[in-house]
Hints:
The complex is a heterodimer of chains A (162) and B (51). By secondary structure, chain A is α/β, with parallel strands linked by helices. Chain A has helices at residues 4-13, 22-29, 46-56, 76-81, 106-109, 128-138, 141-161; strands at 18-21, 38-42, 62-63, 85-89, 92-97, 113-118, 121-126.
Amino acid sequence: xxxxxxxxxxxxxxxxxxxxxxxxxxxxxxxxxxxxxxxxxxxxxxxxxxxxxxxxxxxxxxxxxxxxxxxxxxxxxxxxxxxxxxxxxxxxxxxxxxxxxxxxxxxxxxxxxxxxxxxxxxxxxxxxxxxxxxxxxxxxxxxxxxxxxxxxxxxxxxxxxx
Amino acid sequence: xxxxxxxxxxxxxxxxxxxxxxxxxxxxxxxxxxxxxxxxxxxxxxxxxxx
Lengths: 162, 51
């Protein structure tokens, strides 16, 4: 089971610049769908990669689904050579995305985020409109179902705020 | 397609969530994950018992 609280605290307290996206971000907005992993878009700046490496190192990050014993090194060089990483950690599954289909990089997405206070830390979370846009861009059947729920959520929010 | 999916959405769940704080929504997700895991475990045990 993914320790959402532990992962968000680890990243935020480690000073990592990241944006919460995917199912957990949808939950933060009010989605009722069950999600199992944490998806974040991270800044690819050199300082941030160093912070990301330090923050996650104690939690044994490893490539999810890869056979044990691969020569996977959790360091800045590995992050520089790759972009999107689906990881398993001692705190649960974490998808680290350097870029998001339909959304772009951390810097591209930043203006489309909201700040949320959760589990005693502050995180950036992709705004509802942004989530709908990237889910539409992904275009897989499961994403279309998610888009339907997010659009229904937007309608309910509008009703709620009136 | 999306409009067709929308018809099946239980909006009472969304309305319930909108009454919660962000932290309450995420804690509720953690509870659901625990429940789902327990169901998987129980199902596996039931299948093993039948063998």
